[in-house]
Design goal:
With 998 residues, this protein is α+β, with helices and mostly antiparallel strands. It contains 29 helices and 23 strands. A hairpin with a 5-residue loop joins strand 16 and strand 17. The protein starts with a helix and ends in a 5-residue tail after the last helix.
Amino acid sequence: MAFVKDMLRMWAHSWKRFISIAMITLLGVAVLTGIYAGCRDAFRSTDRFFDAQGLHDVQVLSTAGLSNGDIAALRKVNGVAKVQAERSQEVTFDLDGRKSATMQEIGTNGIDQPYLQEGRMPKKAGEIAVTRKFIRDSGKRIGSRLTVTPESASSDTSDTNDTNGADGTNETNGTDEAPSFPTKLTIVGVVLDPQNLSNPDGYSAMTSFRSTATTDYTFFAPSDGVTGTLYTSATLLVKGTAAESTFDESYENTVKQVTDRIDGTVKTDRQKARRQELLDAGNKKIVDARAEADKKFADAQSQIDANRQQFNQQVDQIVSMQAGAAAAGAAANGTNAGAAAAAGATTPQLDETTRETMRETIIAASPELTQAKQQLDQAQSQLNEQKASTEQTLKTKENELKTSIPQVRWYVQDRQSLGGFSALKSDLDSIQSLGNAFPIVFLLVAVMMSLTAMARMVEEDRSLIGTYVGLGYGRLAVASRYLLFALLACLIGGGLGLIAGFLGIPAFLLVVLQGMYVMPGLRLEYDWLYGSLGIALFVVGVLAATIYACVQEMRQTPAALMRPKAPRAGSRILLERIRPVWNRIGFLGKVTARNIFRFKSRLIMTVGGVAGCTALIVCGLAINDTVADLGIKQYRDIYQYDLMVVSDDSDASAMRTKVASDGRVTSSLDVRIESGDLTVAGSGDGDSGKAGSSGSESIQLVAVPEKHLSDLGEMVTLQPVSSGILGTSGVGKTGSLKLDDDGVIVAQSAASALGVKAGSKVRLTNGDGVQATAKVGAVNRNLIGSDVYVSETYYAKLFDSKDAKNTKNSKSSEDSEALTWNAMLAKLSGSDASQTDYAESLEEDSSVMKAVSCAHMADSFKFDLMGAVVALIVALAGGLALVVLFTLANTNVSERVREMATLKVLGFFDREVHHYVNREMMILTVMGVILGLPLGRLVGGMLTMALNMPSLYFEVEVKPLSYVIAAVATMAFALLVQLFVNPVLDRIDPISSLKSVE
């Protein structure tokens, strides 16, 4: 019992050490669990929302639309739980300029159901539900009316920008009709599109660098009033995915099995079948057209024949009358009256030649008959010409049918292709990667501080330990005094850390997340396993340090433990050997120098602890500086052009004419821009970047005219980059990189994410979905977006030959045509504001699909979520620095109580004692800061490996001000600690402190 009382008394006496260990554990557990819990809560709530709304696992698109046969084939795929055929149509309307929207049919099979936020769901024809973004931009409300106009290209049946296939569908398919929606609309509800969770009312509305929307808004309409048997897409739910988290690898593997089955046989078979359907429909239209034409021609011929017969009857009647009259006259001149009577009673018989001669004579003599005959002959001639022309046209259509209908292509996509989904996932993954990296530093600092505190605690009790061991107490029982002390401190600190980690930090992160995304049903959850393991990790580390301190002391005999520990032997330090310096240092300065370098363990612990905390602060500020400069570096340094304008292929010429006529352009470069993919398949042979690397990245494929390859360097800064150690990269000389016909230039943001380097082989997919294997000629410095530059010649070599191989036909005349330059990179005159206004005015032009101002992008680029996490990390690192300095300062004082008492006996005033002790701590702190600043930069350089986000490369930069802030913050914490240490120095009693322990 006495042993327990003494242990509790010892614990109460060491309350400062207890608080230090508890605080370090609290901060470490909070960092370890907080960021993880915040991301996990967001992941789980989003996954529940996706399951509730039936967000599709797989989406199938086709360049020729989908028929009922396609839908039936998809239902038969093994692993498919549900299939929903969807119809949509792009429309335009006037809202402060021309705006576009997608009319989307609300599915009846429970897939991709919009989430009702206000009002009610539409049920009747003409009723729609809109997103909150539309309500905010338009100022309309529930009950407002809207009139839309179907786009001229509304026959497009996919989001793949392959308008040729869609147009061909409507021209040749006589059985399937494109979707058509009502145009007089009434708003009855406000909904959230499960495919895009971006918060239109939050600060993320300005962050548009990852926007993938092809239209401005989405309107949701019921099936009532929607016509058309051709489907825009098919959405699928996969069996078993509802029980898995959509963000886990197991979910991706389950979905991939189904997409592989679709890609394997169903896709190929249905592409061929669908094209054959189009061919059959085209042939049927030709056959029907021929039959209809033949019927019309037969009717016309019958009419002409009837008119000619009537005409001939009239002429024959006149011929008969004239022949009869002639015969009667001849008989009257005869002598026999009976003969005359007989001649008048019968018409004389005329031979054919005589009759034909009389017909021509009669027609020629009558203007009316002549005109009638000419009209009949002209009608017959026109009919014959029409027959010949129609037959020729139909024969031409038959010959052109196969070439006019392109190969049908299917696009099988999963949730990763949804811009809103991939943006949310990449944001959370990046934050979670930071949450996995920073706790390591906290753990190391916690172990170091625990070792320092517990070693001093055990050393103070060495005589008591010797007494207990001499009285027969086991060494384990004696060590349990300190082990239980450390364990209790860890458990209390860890428990408080779990509260902060699963409630405080997640609540903060989720507030920031909800400013970027709408996540219905968001709630905080506790993970017992992860929380327990988080505390256990720090418990093991701190107990290991405590055990080491106990073992170091208890290996001695009880008699040696009960004697005072011999003072550390004096020794010369290196500075003493530098006489010119040493001789100019005062007495107290020499004492300070000896104390700093003689106690090496204290030197290492203090400098290491301060350096670690300073490095954390620098690292956090480095993330902030890096993110803050991303937009400026990309849109002002890398992109030298001021404006990028993109149009449809059919409007490319009009777009260039429009921009040229405005007179704002000082120089320009025509290019072709397509949305595509860059894929690296794991190989292990080194040809695909890193051995075993794999992955896919959405890219912007930029084809440059062959005659203007050298002009690309004037619009985009071309700098080759090479991978370095620890995630760093080396940047080559500006202008040393040239685009040629031997390979493509890949953006650094995509190359870093996929492990691609110069000489690698990658698989490119162009805007038409055609794939080709390309060689990477170089990797170009690029921070935002994933651009891939390719020459006109190399583009044709890659995709034309591949298309010919796929179609198994010779290259058609259409394939051999030159590329359509559908985009322009231009440098503008005027200020940044005027350039932004000009880009906005261009978007209102009907020939312009998209106009982007680099000045606007540089000013508006934000990454709010990362900034919030940086602020959190810097705050926690500052708290850790404060606890570390407090622990080290108190340990330093407790170790040197007799020394401080001696100084007081010698006549030192309190202020002089303060200066004597604090000067050592300040020097050690400065040393730690000097070491921590470059260490923080080194750790910051490793962030490029942790923050591996789509379309972003973090080129780490630390501004001088950040170094100053980190150094000043650490020194400020050291000065703050002095305010707590000075009263302890004042309370040292020289008499009791200098008593002999014997």
